[in-house]
Amino acid sequence: MTDAAARLAALAEEVLGAPLPLRIRAWDRSETGPPGAPVLILRRRRALRRMLWKPGELGLARAWVAGDLEVEGDLYEALDQLAGLLWERDEPAAPRRTRLAAALKAARDPKVRAAVRELVTLAGPGLPPAPPREEAGSTRGPLHTLRRDKQAISHHYDVGNDFYELVLGPSMVYSCAYWERPDTTLEEAQRAKLDLVCRKLALEPGQRLLDVGCGWGSMVLHAAREYGVRAVGITLSEEQASYARKRIADAGLTDEIEIRVQDYREIDDGPYDAISSIGMAEHVGSVRYAEYTGILHRLLAPGGRLLNHQIARRPEPDEEAYHVDEFIDRYVFPDGELAPVGRTVTQLEEAGFEVRDVEAIREHYALTLRRWVANLERSWPEAVRLTSPGRARVWRLYMAASALSFERNRIGVNQILAVRTPESGASGLPLRTRDWRG
């Protein structure tokens, strides 16, 4: 077979109803497409079989993770162009759906049907191979039980602390940084974020702080060292807990900080003066969110503050039709769910909180993700050695695609400050907005 690239480009245009904005290089080394554009490389025919048998982002993701599909050139530009083909970008409020999947599953046009048949022939005989081993295994039973949540967290976080050090840098903070300027270092921006959280919580010496989803201990370390609090951090990841405890011991703060491998539903030693939840609530799930907010309200002392830092999606016209991103669910955050910020505010209020401030910082996350991608790419051989080629490709794809999603306003991230206001009505906040201390 010769000139597979030209045939693929023509067939793709027939199916999608639009020309491919990327160059294509096929397994036979043929190449076609706009000069200077990023190159989509199909290294093996099975990449095409994966995409035909599972049309949409999951088939593409499996081909990418397996190394059957690669991009040469600007990855961000390539992903942005692919997003324009795969998803209905002209209908931002419509339910997320795949143009490719719709074309392949519901095509009635004889020309499209003929093109699909030729694509199947071009892909070669046989079923697609099994999904890459980096894909999370199928889970059964009710969502967000203690056991299932622990398994989901382990899939994402227990992939090696050395790997995360490469990606996150010395701060070891795996959430959106806070940038005063784009040329600030990642470490400075992460320190600024931690300090912003501490100031919003109005932390003072001697207070008790609970950090829900403490990761590698950066928040509790900063709060204890800079604000003199006594802190408890909880995580479901054994690897994170071991790493955090060592950092705390090295800092001489073992009397001030306790790290527990514990689910938020198992905490019974309140009240706390302040609670931080930074990048954790995305794992809670809609079926448990009311329980989550109720538990945090119960654990907080009257007058205490909660800082909930959480990624948000845009609302759908039909919320019942919302479905999670297949690539993220299978390869990155199993069982993770995003909710619109308005729903999160409502559920906090229904739990008894008084919501006092919402700060949207989505552009900050785009900057953060681009720095993480740069860290990963700079240390690529070591990242592959520490995990696997497929795992490194998962992280590169999801972080680069997420950066674009924040930049294009497809998702956002918000810091919500809420208070367990006592019966007297005295919130403890100042009259001036964002002065933080009363």
Automatic annotation (TrEMBL):
SUPFAM superfamilies: S-adenosyl-L-methionine-dependent methyltransferases. Belongs to the CFA/CMAS family. It comes from Streptomyces himastatinicus ATCC 53653. This is Cyclopropane-fatty-acyl-phospholipid synthase. Signal peptide: none annotated. PANTHER family: CYCLOPROPANE-FATTY-ACYL-PHOSPHOLIPID SYNTHASE (PTHR43667:SF1). Residues 123-142 are annotated as: Disordered. GO terms for molecular function: methyltransferase activity. InterPro entries: CFA/CMAS, CMAS, MeTfrase_dom, SAM-dependent_MTases_sf. Gene3D superfamilies: Vaccinia Virus protein VP39. GO terms for biological process: lipid biosynthetic process; methylation. Residues 163-404 form the Polyketide synthase-like methyltransferase domain. It holds the Pfam family CMAS. Keywords: Lipid metabolism, Methyltransferase, S-adenosyl-L-methionine, Transferase.
